[in-house]
């Protein structure tokens, strides 16, 4: 079976880091992903997805990402059933993150916490164009006949 998801969006709130009873780190957060098209009124729509990250990935997310950060996630979809306070059966669908990456630089609107170093300015000089040799069709005398009746040398 195949269960792989790749998604990129912005954190709706700061991620929350917790510890299980065994001491395993787990982070929960929600991301907003813009849809590719606007609705009938010209408004952009977004989908909101719950994400769970475990162990080192959870600690990484909580250390380097905050509300508004652009994040790229690779993981899998997971569903679970539970009963709410009123005894109603519910189903929760979430993304379980396997890999998390920075998806954009820090900007003035508070998104992200990663600013890559500026690329060094380099001067490239292109070599002078060389003359392309001209090829002629040649003549049939340029080829030698090979006797294939003998044993091959390999």
Structure description:
This protein has one helix at residues 55-64, and strands at residues 5-11, 16-19, 25-38, 44-54, 70-83, 89-102. The protein is mainly beta and 154 residues long. It has a domain at 5-102: OB fold (Dihydrolipoamide Acetyltransferase, E2P), CATH 2.40.50. A 5-stranded mixed β-barrel has the order 1-3-4-6-5. Strand 5 (70-83) and strand 6 form a beta hairpin. It is elongated, with a radius of gyration of 29 Å. Mean pLDDT is 81; it is low at 108-126.
Summarize it.
The chain is mainly beta.
- CATH fold annotation of the domain at 5-102: OB fold (Dihydrolipoamide Acetyltransferase, E2P)
State the share of residues found in helices, binned by percent. Answer: under 10%
Distance between the ends: 49 Å
Order of helices and strands: EEEEHEE
State which percent range the strand residues make up.
35-45%
Adjacency order of strands in the biggest sheet: 1-3-4-6-5
Task: Assign the structural class, choosing from mainly alpha, mainly beta, alpha/beta, alpha+beta, or little secondary structure.
Answer: mainly beta
Over all CA atoms, what is the radius of gyration? Answer: 29 Å
At CATH level 2, the architecture of the domain at 5-102 is Beta Barrel
Overall body shape:
elongated
Query: Mean pLDDT across all residues, rounded?
Result: 81
Tally of DSSP β-strands: 6
The description of the largest β-sheet is: 5 strands, mixed, barrel
Q: What key phrases describe this protein's structure?
A:
single chain, 154 residues, mainly beta, OB fold (Dihydrolipoamide Acetyltransferase, E2P), 5-stranded mixed beta barrel, 1 helix, 6 strands, 6% helix
